Amino acid sequence: EGWKPPVTLVSALTNSGLEELWEGILECHESLRLSGVLQSRRNTQAERWMWEHLRSQVQGLVHADPSLKGIAEKQLVELKLERTSPRAAAAELLAAISPRFER
Q1: Within a 10 A sphere around the Cβ of 81, how many other Cβ atoms?
Q2: Strand residues in the chain grouped as ranges (E)
Q3: Cβ burial 17-32 (10 Å sphere, 16+ → b, else e)
Q4: What does the alpha-carbon distance between residue 19 and residue 25 come to, in Å, rounded to a whole number?
């Protein structure tokens, strides 16, 4: 974020500039690590992956279970007919899913 990458001339044909390029990559990594930017990006990525995994798991659960799939299909029809809102349709599905997680 505060680091400016140097311009490095690299040629695969003559095999020149690779060492300088690698040094620049290492400098960039170290700069990002020391500034905390690298950890911040990793944290943001982990959070994004967690939510994406949750969405994927819930969608998989709905598609794999015939009763949930039926509820979802009914809600999609209701959405198309403008008889419900996306929020209300999601609430219907969540209400059907949530008892499965009660202990």
Answers
A1: 8
A2: none
A3: eeeeeeebeeeeeebb
A4: 10
Closest CA to 25 of 13, 17, 36: 17
Q: Measured at the alpha carbon of residue 11, what is the angle toward residues 5 and 12, in degrees to the nearest 5? A: 120
Cα–Cα dist 48/96, whole Å: 26
| Residue keyed to tokens 């690590």 | 33
Question: Closest Cα to residue 1, out of 47, 36, 46?
Answer: 36
Side chain identity at residue 101, one-letter code: F
Backbone phi, then psi, for 9, in 5-degree steps? -85, 125
Instruction: Check: pTM over 0.85? Answer yes or no.
Output: no
Q: Which two tokens stand for residue 25?
A: 């990559």
In the block, tokens 């009660």 appear at 102
Which pLDDT does position 26 carry in this prediction?
95
In the chain, the largest separation of any two C-alpha atoms, in whole Å, equals 67
